[in-house]
Amino acid sequence: MNAVTVVEAPRTRRRRLLRKRFLRRPVAVAGLVVVVGFVVLAIFAPWIAPHSSGYTDFNHVLAKPGGRYLLGTDELGHDELSRVIWGARSSMQVGVFATLLAMVIAVPIGMVAGYYRGWIDAIIARATDVLLSFPFVILAVGLAAILGPSLLNATLALGIGAVPVFIRIARGETLALREEDYVPAAIANGASDATIIFKHILPNMTSTLIVQATVTIPTAIIGEAVLSFLGLGVQPPETSWGVMLQTAQDQLANAPRLAVFPGIALVLVVLAFNVMGDGLRDILDPRTTR
Amino acid sequence: MGGFLIRRLGAALVVLVVASMLVFLGVRAIPGDPAIALGAESRDPALLAQIRHKYLLDRPLPVQYAHWVWLALHGDLGVDQRELPVAHTIVSRLPITLELALLSMLIATITGIPAGVIAAVRRGKPSDHAVTATALVGLSVPHFWLGLLAIIWFAVDLHWLPSGGYVGWAHPLDNLKHMIMPAIVLSAGFSAVLMRQMRSSMLDTLNADFVRTARAKGLSERRVVAHHALRNSLITVTTVMGLQLGALISGAVVTETVFQIAGFGRLTIEAVNQRDYTLIQGVVLVATVGYVAANLLVDVAYSLLNPRIRVS
Fold first, then answer.
1. Contact between chains at B145 and A266 (C-beta distance less than 8 A)
2. In this structure, are residues A50 and A83 in contact, taking their beta carbons and an 8 Å threshold?
């Protein structure tokens, strides 16, 4: 009897295993579904939202939810539902770009520190420690003062704010990975430092970086809402959940719902990222796998 | 211990020098004549010349920087657009923010630590799940939204508490009435982090050898938890406090905006909205100094609690 054995590449096998493990965690899967939902909203906002973000209906100011406007309208007659959908755009944009920016700056620095060690590592580690919890609002205040408040500058502030965490992680991973057998092997093959760092060490820390990204994205999303709420981020008439909450502040007594809907969207997306990230960490971290 | 303190102090000083340089250069990176900004937007040539002379704007940058630091060390941060001394404004606003911060740290500590301990001791039981879920929500819900909801419920609907504003210590009860809601809101995130950290560090220590020894000696479970495990876990709390300082400062800015408290945090935002550069410069400098100083304090507390740190 000839058994036909299908030989799977180790990478495919690992992926299949990870997917299986992830699907066994219903909460994490629910998180993923919600995240994907918001990404779709953000990308297809012009087609999904009933109205444009600047649409105003002066005849239906502060309309109650239901009827023509599912979630009602605000004090300028903006359709609340449309603005929540458009707001997903700013949030996702800031979340993703701030995280990417942080990675692009931090990962090379962290890898250099972890790979070469010595004095350069000492300096980088010390600077990272100091910056690790520097209040991002103060940083954003400084940037807004110099460059003026905008979505872009909020993204910059949040991205720079996330740099120290990524430096730490990249450094720690590199310290561990450079002891792996394939590093001396690559050196023996005449590989340059750059080749070792980017071809051998970087690919092996991607899963850790991805897990950290799922933590950084929601943090940046909250950060954007906070900065826009404070007037340091997105500027009206552009919209974001933070801007909506800022304007809702004046209507707390007669239309508290205006402060509720964007907040729910915000919490939902942040919670979804958090539980998805927890699930990813569980399946990617060998120490917690059962 | 002495060596450790001196090293930490030295590092803090270096950070302060670098930070002050960044603040100094930041304001000079803004397009326009700094003399106009420093002189409250006045165009009077005599006044501008006087300001240029006072702040040495006609001299090279390093000289200007040294002079600026010298003035700052003597409590002179310039005057804002309303020609009020910036240092004075900051000093008058700081106590309000400090009260808010201390109150919220107190609330976070008395809720977060016991909840984390209970969750760890009753691992896997309903109370553990309740604490873990509460912490997750506490981390996911942004302060300012929580603040808005609190205003809707407790001020608008129930009329229990004022929706905002600040009353001085001359009226202690009124002061507390105004501060309690903002303080609870600000404490939410910190409390959640404490719960999580306490839980995981207690779980670690409860499995440690010295705890097993304590149990083997026949000590009651309460004594084991309170005297052996908890004491060791408190080191973690100090670390968390250090890492949360930045969040606390950011949180104060936001909370003061939501509850319309005219503290240091609100001043920061006012400064940006008014594009008052002298004020921004002063506020950012003071915030950074406060941050570095508080970090230093946490480090010292940490080394007192954990002798292993001092040696390394």
1. yes
2. no
* Chain B residue with the nearest C-alpha to that of A268: B140
What is the arithmetic mean of pLDDT over A74-98? 84
Query: Which residues, other chains included, contact A204 with Cβ-Cβ below 8 Å and sequence gap of 6+?
Result: A173, A177, A180
Interchain pair A222, B272: CB under 8 A:
no
HEC profile of A119-186: HHHHHHHHHHHHHCCCCHHHHHHHHHHHHCCCHHHHHHHHHHHHHHHHHHHHHHHHHHHCCCCHHHHH
Among candidates A136, A141, A274 on the partner chain, residue whose Cβ is nearest the Cβ of B268: A141
B164 touches chain A (CB under 8 A): no
Distance CA A183, CA A274 (A): 34
Mean pLDDT of A269-286: 84
User: What gap in Å lies between CA B288 and CA B294, rounded to an integer?
Assistant: 10
- What is the mean pLDDT, run by run of 10 residues, along chain B of 312 residues? 77 83 78 65 74 75 83 81 83 89 90 88 86 84 87 84 78 82 89 87 80 82 78 74 78 88 87 80 86 81 69 47
Closest C-alpha to B140, from A222, A34, A282: A222
Considering only CB atoms, A266 lies closest to which of B29, B142, B242, namely B142
Distance CA B236, CA B230 (A): 10
Tens of pLDDT, residues B121-165: 888 888 888 888 888 888 878 888 888 888 888 888 888 888 777
User: B92-95: long-range contacts (C-beta < 8 A, 24 or more apart)?
Assistant: B93/B262, B93/B263, B93/B264, B93/B266, B93/B267, B94/B263, B94/B264, B94/B286
Q: Answer whether A271 sits within 8 Å of B283, measured CB to CB.
A: no
pLDDT at A6: 62
Q: Which chain B positions have a beta carbon within 8 Å of A126's beta carbon?
A: 11
Are the Cβ atoms of B269 and A232 closer than 8 angstroms? yes
pLDDT digits (tens, 9 = 90+) for A169-195: 999 889 888 888 888 888 888 888 888
Task: For residue B81, count other CB atoms closer than 10 A to its CB.
Answer: 17
The pTM for the full model equals 0.83
d(CA B65, CA B215): 61
Chain A 141-170, residues with CB within 8 Å of chain B CB atoms: 141-142, 144-146, 149
